[in-house]
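<instruction>
Derive structure tokens from the sequence
<data>
Labelled lines for chain and fold:
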Amino acid sequence: MSSKDFSVIASFLKDRSGLIISEDKTYLLETRLSAILREHKVAGLSGLADILRQPGPHAVKDKVVDAMTTNETSFFRDNHPFETLRQSLIPRLIERRAGSRSLRIWSAACSTGQEPYSLAMMMKDNFPILAGWRIEIIATDLSPTVLDRARTGLYSTFEVQRGLPIQMLVRHFDQEEPNWRIKPEIRRTVAFRPLNLLEDFSSLGQFDIVLCRNVLIYFDQPTKTQILNGITRRIVPDGALLLGGAESVFGLCNSLAALPGLKGVYGHAGPPKPFVRQLSAAS
């Protein structure tokens, strides 16, 4: 594959998904795209570059983005953000939203759905007061393939063993040998929608909490800034954004600031000050 062909593929991935790939990662293209090239009888990466040069839609184009987009996830991944939600953010929101009895949460780049389903299970188990509330959990991802799978709520034994407490497995899943399916009452609480974070997402409306975790690490700095500015406009004045452990808004978005005492949690900079409820020492 020539440097020009690589440039075509890299530019396509950057434009469509924000993914940055350097020429020394050619092996990654070969590894992840080989099955697609065989399926569509494409003559290697050079042949793929020829397809990507063509204007208009093509079946291969969507599959390339799907294959190259990292979809690593698990139930209650990293755990600390969920403890922050359980002990601090959601209790305070319940106090502040007592009048409207409504909460909106956005799980961005949700992959196969473990994060939003973890949220739904955690809220059901820990906050019975919310039974009469209007709770919306919107989960979005670039890939239609992973969203289709997320909607089924069907996971392998390996997947449910990664981070999911056995009590929750028994309480919220039905076994369908050799897999496990989330019960309908949990699946109904999550709405999955296709969304590209590089495009306008103002149609989603406003949210009390946004989770965009372990996503920004794959983008360059201008793209990170673009996405963070867009997310900021989707957060209500006293709302919160949760990022991954290796991510931060510093140097990228001046309209967000860290909430003291809450690792990886950000709110609007300046008045009105976002709420902060300190975690207990045990956390």
Remarks:
- The CA atoms of residues 47 and 217 lie 30 Å apart.
